[in-house]
Amino acid sequence: xxxxxxxxxxxxxxxxxxxxxxxxxxxxxxxxxxxxxxxxxxxxxxxxxxxxxxxxxxxxxxxxxxxxxxxxxxxxxxxxxxxxxxxxxxxxxxxxxxxxxxxxxxxxxxxxxxxxxxxxxxxxxxxxxxxxxxxxxxxxxxxxxxxxxxxxxxxxxxxxxxxxxxxxxxxxxxxxxxxxxxxxxxxxxxxxxxxxxxxxxxxxxxxxxxxxxxxxxxxxxxxxxxxxxxxxxxxxxxxxxxxxxxxxxxxxxxxxxxxxxxxxxxxxxxxxxxxxxxxxxxxxxxxxxxxxxxxxxxxxxxxxxxxxxxxxxxxxxxxxxxxxxxxxxxxxxxxxxxxxxxxxxxxxxxxxxxxxxxxxxxxxxxxxxxxxxxxxxxxxxxxxxxxxxxxxxxxxxx
Amino acid sequence: xxxxxxxxxxxxxxxxxxxxxxxxxxxxxxxxxxxxxxxxxxxxxxxxxxxxxxxxxxxxxxxxxxxxxxxxxxxxxxxxxxxxxxxxxxxxxxxxxxxxxxxxxxxxxxxxxxxxxxxxxxxxxxxxxxxxxxxxxxxxxxxxxxxxxxxxxxxxxxxxxxxxxxxxxxxxxxxxxxxxxxxxxxxxxxxxxxxxxxxxxxxxxxxxxxxxxxxxxxxxxxxxxxxxxxxxxxxxxxxxxxxxxxxxxxxxxxxxxxxxxxxxxxxxxxxxxxxxxxxxxxxxxxxxxxxxxxxxxxxxxxxxxxxxxxxxxxxxxxxxxxxxxxxxxxxxxxxxxxxxxxxxxxxxxxxxxxxxxxxxxxxxxxxxxxxxxxxxxxxxxxxxxxxxxxxxxxxxxx
Lengths: 398, 398
Fold this sequence. Notes:
homodimer; alpha/beta; about 25% strand; 6-stranded parallel β-sheet; 10 helices
């Protein structure tokens, strides 16, 4: 029997829970009313069926865990997000982890019992969508499960085509809810390395990560796995959990309160690669000035505000020109970055065993505890990854 | 006999001059004293010999024409430039065109009589230098003929290794002095296309060029040769020679006085590729906002000042991230971009015959007219390319 703290609904992520077989026709889901701030609620919705996907290609997945992040906050604040056509609500949740419970007759890629993570964006109509790189769409409209025009994963089940469902080995089942955030890093680094083929030879040695949140930590991990000397800049004074995690990778943590970025760059840079993951646009422009010759600055954080800042425009341009520097923005993600993420996460479990699990700081048990989930996401201190434990793995029979 | 205007020293670039065989041991050259503002002067210097280059690999070139640009102004203002070791002067001039008059016994690539243009930068020690991409050097020190630590081409002769001398077909002899500036465009576009291999499919349709000076015009040409719809933004109100040249390419000219960049982008963009060649860093930051999804902004202009400007930082970052956009700086150039330039210039002569020659607006006859050369470069109006006609082609006997 699981040991649940009744007051908080928090459970240890690895303890078993009692099986919870949902009703055949409906299921519970966490949803919002797009356009209406603070509208998150629990509701009964139709349970998806495997035959909803044409061609016998349906894969029905029982959801085990779903992570939440800043995008979910923005969706609940009605700053972003739209309901699918024909619905007035949007099921939220885009960082999924689950297990296949049923497959259509023409599915060869996945089998009942497989652990899986679903991608988020769905193709539009541009040539980039047609070749599977829907993250590079030039369409104006985005389709993203749990975010825009498509229901998400904060529910008991979802169904999709195997094209959008990535198999995860059992060895990653305790951490696979981190795969979707990991793809932010995978895509950013893959784009950077693709771009740097322009150099014919590129052996980056020093990297910086701006921001020590979930994405910053995962970026530091991926860069350490690639053998780089990594400096992570964060706001919080060390030591704290995040700086400990960074040190345990053999990377360096600098608080910008004590060491401004450009001072840190003078000591430990300049940086061949900088991964920006702060959500603060002023850091973007400081990062431009911390880049080594031929270096690449990857922008991955969304800055929805309207901040104007003063920048040394002549100097930034001159250094980009004389140093052949590159800046690239990156938005998530297509299937291949999920597949790369699986490889990096298995590499991480082998190189830094137990490290990824330490990021799972704030589990919240059960969809019915959506208020606590939102509360933890919005107000808890020391969070790295807040997630909903939708169901226990033991509830699935392969 | 040439028809020279004695008062101005200006000659038509295509008229023959009397042969001028220089003395065997010395020659005339235009030089500056680095560190001393306004020190440009004519001097007698040792005439280079083919055996100065080791291994029997010397190529002695008689200089026919040398273009001048903003860098030459900066060098004369002592804002930039250093003398070679052992010298207190620097022979200036980096946009060369000449003809081979003597080769060492182990030169197979070039023969006496060949028309040639020399590259500018020389290798340092980094891995990029070692593989021939010395324009991507990560060294702190740059070696550039006519600019920094190496003598330039504003002289009667120069000698070099064939590695740094690019053959030009006789069909380009009237315009080949434009090859060095063309390499700015060639490298910028080559880097952009290399970078865009990250997209697997890239079919850019709309391009913008910021600036309608020599580089801007050559960028518009190269982009039209690649089939793009091109909009050039300049400050001057049309019509004038530069806007006429742009129209004659089938491109569009917009004066930013009448049409600010972002308005122009709304009408004719967004732009898959933007080539920035204004020398004004504020334009760089405006250009960032005129870029299409997956677009690439090429920065090629040097901004030596200290301007600070106010920018919409959140918006620029957000658009780069959500649109997967790229910005790349580019500094010139290695041999391959000269070879690409030859191809584009021959293509241009076939597609737009006579167009390149119209850029040669301000010839100045003879090294001894260096004052007029500098005066024309600094003060003349309506200049596109100012250059010194060092010697007539007919003075060379193959």
